[in-house]
Structure prediction request, 690 residues.
Amino acid sequence: MRFELTDEQRAFGEALDGLLSAADTAAVARAWADGDTGPGLKLWARLADQGLTVLATEATAVEVCIAFEALGRHAVPGPWVESAAYLPIALGHEVEGVATVAAPPRVPYALDADVADTVYLAGPDGLAEAEVGEQRASVDRARRLFAPAVEVGGAPSLETSGDSAFDLAALATAAQLLGLGERVLADTVTYAKQRRQFGREIGSYQAIKHQLADVRIALDFARPLVYGAALSLAEPVETTPRAVSAAKVMCADAAYLASRTGLQVHGAIGYTQEFDLSIWITKIRALVTAWGTPAFHRARILDSLVGA
Amino acid sequence: MDLDLSESEVAFRDEARAWLAANVPAEPLPSMDTAEGWRLHQEWEARLAADRWSVVSWPRDYHGREASLVEWVIFEEEYYRAGAPGRVSQNGIFLLAPIIFEHGTKEQQDRYLPSMATGEKVWAQCWSEPEAGSDLASLKSTARRDDARGGWVLNGQKTWSSRATYAHWGFGLFRSDPEAARHHGLTYFLFPMDADGITVRPIAQLDGEAGFAEVFFDEVFVPDADVLGAPGDGWRVAMSTAGNERGLSLRSPGRFCAAVDRLVELYRERPDTRVSDRVVDAWLKAEAYRLYTWGTVTRLADGGEMGAAGSVNKVWWSELDIALHETALDLLGPEAEVESRWLDGYTFALSGPIYAGTNEIQRNIIAERILGLPREPKGAQR
Prediction:
């Protein structure tokens, strides 16, 4: 019984954080949103060099979660969940270059299909390469959404029957939300220590403190569900999909609380596109419903608890 | 990183499970806050102690079995899953004992701990005063030095003292240096509740039971042998108790996991889709608490300290406890108001966000000590 990251795993996360801290990822995300995907693809190549695209096939889900928490903390754009979590498991091998996938009805759009070397469509009969239609705008300007050009007949029965590709994608999204939430909390705490009103730092008022404490609490209890689900995915059992859903629901709730609180504490400056907080807040909103909505995952938990 | 139990931990779990299956009373005991229920809970403690299950993590000399922290968590999970009675000795074994182990002399340990472990002597905590609740450091009860008799004389009033109605011993803070400010000049005393000058006045709680009491001190003599830690050092000594109460030792995840299992069972019997998300959320929070606790146990085993994380813990379990009981009551529908185990659990849960430091105080601690936000300017202080 050792429910803590190993020194090696911790060092891996810190190395990724170091690399991403120096990469001005906010500027990368802004460029990506404006259609300039060059800096993002350059960063993609550097992260692939660090092994991010082979973690799903060559490491464990724990390492996948460490990586996605870092990607979330730095709001890195691109179809990472698709290329580094879903497709390696669904295809049975790592993805060369950049790939993306739509898996209706849970994942109706192929993320960033315009930069992908290969676009897949997941249907009841498995994966097939697919064409996509026009781009749709996401609440997160750095998520470029494309609907598949063809309709998929019948919903894939994958999510309830223990589809490990879907589960790893949902868990990676949860880890990303955890990192996004942690970053919003950290930046908001920094702001609350600097911003003064009525003659003192706003962070000295209980009205602010208690809201931020609630975010701290929510994130602290979401984290163990992520790593509990990661351990479960390493040796899947009947309750593994439930563990994944638990992580996704709690991380979505915690990150969303972080985003609402972060916006409120920042006030009007947080509501501007110019201020970087907007990058994190909009990504959280998009990921809350990505790879299974909270309602879908809660229903999956209920089915598992009471027997469908 | 793993969540696997070792062979010896599995053996420990199986032994605990088998003992509990053979010994837990078939019918729930009457409330421990009634005379009859108190006696039966004391008997249960004695039965636990006879087979070294009352204080598993303690040394063998004091009726324990030197269980590890992991084993303690396992035991708690089994204990509550088996539906075993609440612990009447809880204030002593979970709150006071860790302090006696840390700050007490060997003589004090030998004198207090064995009878605490067997439930023969039950302890009450005497923290709050009428004018000192959340602001505990403003307490006014005094301790006057009596060199002639070699001890101290206590005067004042404590209130909301859990278990004080029937308890044999009490523990609390008194101001031993009237000149010193707030956190300084406080001393930690232990005293028999039947000492000359102590008057206990039970207070009926929300549910009508006398779970707590007012305690009046009128020239109560306490010998030096019953001072815990150094005179004047009581705040520091007491705060390690507070950390225990907020943190791991008072509320093991086993309690909540067992309650959520019963909630899911209730939902199966009375499915109501309007309440299903809240059933899921109660399960989620208990499951998060279970896993979070394994992380805490790992860090403590590595030599880490609970610190302000105890406040994170306390807010979580106290709010979870209320939410899961509210959900059960909603499933019961119009029958919710009728006497039941769920209703008892709900009434008890309501006190959680208040005792052991209100959740407002906990959120201040989290904001200031974990997030590093500036302290709020306090009002006028003496």
Summary: The mean pLDDT of chain A is 95. Strands of chain A lie at 99-102, 110-111, 118-123, 126-129, 132-137, 144-148, 196-197, 200-201. The first strand of chain A starts at residue 99 and ends at 102.
